[in-house]
Amino acid sequence: MSPKSRSMIELTIMDNIITLVEMLENATAFLETISVARTFIDSGVQILFCKLMQYVKTSKKLMITFMQDEFLTASEHQLQDLSWEIHRLKLADKLIRFMYNRTAIKCCSQLTTMMNCIISYAPFRASDVSKFSQEFSTYTQLYGEAVINVSDLEKQSILKAMGLSKGHWYQCPNGHVYCITECGGAMVESQCNECGARIGGSSHRLLSDNQVATAMDGATRSAW
């Protein structure tokens, strides 16, 4: 192999590594903001949450070490595996976000299955993503959290187009998403375009059967 060809390959690997580092940082962004320990009512949930947090921290450290050591020599197969592992941490982040503000959640088969998908050192593949997503949908609905049926890419496009801060997105009693612009507080009542249910509220008070659409932008309370 000529020096020029080798240099091009190394540059490609470096570029891929940089992209993966950015993906890793985005996948673990919420974890880095947690400074206060969470206490759950269910001791089983407490144990699983702590294990999940530790797994993410350990995995991130191992990945960073690998990328620092192999940033010029990593094979295509290794980079693909690394990409899958980052996707695993992205799903872990999704579960951590959901659990963090719900200290009364219970330990059940769905939570155990999701944890088994994430907390593992076996290769992570599409079948694991599918299993996790199915269990996450069931688990969140147990706690009145309707899962928004759009992809992450579609959500990003919508949020970028609207240009609003967190807390402007809500869900009707049937889980359909709507947006309140300006201050983000509910000032008038209306009807859901999808099902006709009452949405909005008055005097900055949201109707009791509506809720903040946490799954849309990560907000846990209204912008108001």
TrEMBL record:
Domain of life assignment: Eukaryota
Query: What's the name of the protein?
Result: NFX1-type zinc finger-containing protein 1
* All copies of domain RZ-type, residue ranges: 150-222
Tell me where it resides: Cytoplasm
Per its UniProt record, what InterPro entries does this chain match? ZF_RZ_dom (IPR046439)
Q: Which GO terms describe its biological process?
A: immune system process
| Keyword field | Cytoplasm, Immunity, Metal-binding, Zinc, Zinc-finger
Gene Ontology MF: a single term: zinc ion binding
One Gene Ontology cellular component annotation?
cytoplasm
State the organism named in the record: Trichonephila clavata (Joro spider)
